[in-house]
Amino acid sequence: MQESTFNELADLALRNSGQHFAPTKSYLMDARLSSISRRESFATLDDLVQCLKARPNPRFEQEVAAALTSKKTSFFSERAVIEQIMGHALPERLKLSKSGKLRIWCAGVSTGQEAWSLAIRLKEEVGSPLASADIEIIGSDLSTDCVETAKRGVYGHFDVQKGLSIHRLITNFNRLDNGEWEINDDLRGSVFFRRQNLLNPASDLGGFDVILCSNVIGGLARPAQRQVLETLSKQLLPEAYIFFGADEAIEGLSDTVTPSREMRSAFIRAASSGATAAA
Amino acid sequence: MKHCLIVDDSRVVRTVAGRIIQDLSFTVSEAAHGAEALDMCRKEMPDAILLDWNMPVMNGLDFLRALRREEKGKEPVVVFCTNENDSEHISEAIRAGANEYIMKPFDAEIVESKFAEVGLV
Lengths: 279, 121
What we know:
The complex is a heterodimer of chains A (279) and B (121). In chain A, 40% of the residues lie in helices and 18% in strands. With 279 residues, chain A is an alpha/beta fold. Chain A has a 7-stranded mixed sheet with strand order 6-2-1-7-8-10-9, with helices on both faces. In chain A, helix 1 crosses helix 3 (45-54) and helix 1 crosses helix 4 (58-67). The longest helix of chain A is centred in the N-terminal third of the chain and has 18 residues, at 79-96. In chain A, 41% of the residues are buried. With 121 residues, chain B is α/β, with parallel strands linked by helices. Chain B has 5 helices and 5 strands, in the order E-H-E-H-E-H-E-H-E-H. Chain B has helices at residues 11-23, 34-43, 60-69, 87-96, 108-117; strands at residues 2-7, 26-31, 48-51, 77-82, 100-103. In chain B, strand 1, helix 1 and strand 2 (26-31) form a beta-alpha-beta unit. Chain B is globular, with a radius of gyration of 13 Å. Classes of the chains: A alpha/beta (279), B alpha/beta (121). The interface between A and B is medium-sized, with 14 and 18 residues.
């Protein structure tokens, strides 16, 4: 890949998704754009960039930016965070809820495994107050392809064996004739997926009791990290919780959220943020 | 160091799985069928058993049922590792006392994930 091609693609990623690419990561661009290049019959990424420059196409540019994002995910990849959500965040929010309705947003959910993991874990809350609560899970991602995969809820042989116990697999999935596994109908009604660029306002999503955003912030340039935190914190209901990946450093990035006193990895909307999410 | 017994009639599978499991800090021993594995367990009960289903002499399911009847036979964590990938076989294995189930083909990440599910790593 020519240096100018790397620079063009790095700028495109920064503009559209806030993602930061160091020059040493050009191999990631090759890997992540190989599918689009093949489909569009570009011999090299240099050709792809030349095409984008010669015939600007915002839709294709966004597709390229989405393809450049990391898709790495697995079921229960944030197991400790999910247990904090189940054991503390949701019960606390339920105590404050007059309607018994709670809303969770999995932001940057890639192909949906983390959102389905939450739904699976919630289904296991038999006999707890959460069992009778009306809990809606929204999963969002920048990539339309990822959102479509998440909506289908069909995962391959290797995907379902990473993070899912065999008990959870046979309880919550049906094996299809082609060897893939499809999420059961009883979980489908509780999870919804849509496209969302976290650099843009998400006010139409409404307010949330819990937001989970793992493995997103770390790959972004500093200004984009602040912008995403602002987008997310604006959708937090008062005293609601936001969680990031267990290894992601958020403190000091923005004053819109502040660490929770009760839970590691959890933050709450800062009183000074002035955010006003509607219930 | 924990000890894992790999029971599979394919030497290739035993070798590949053995390397993966050694990388998870286990010592590894091998058996080519259930009867050989049962003899080995009677001499020294392993911490974990990676178990194929279809094998000559004694298959994995018969081995597992016999193992669980042995004194201390409930102690090893048994992870099936087989081409029998449908829900019926999986349910039957769990009823017989399997703790986890790996569907072939597998890779190192799957073995580590499944061993983590049952607290082996």
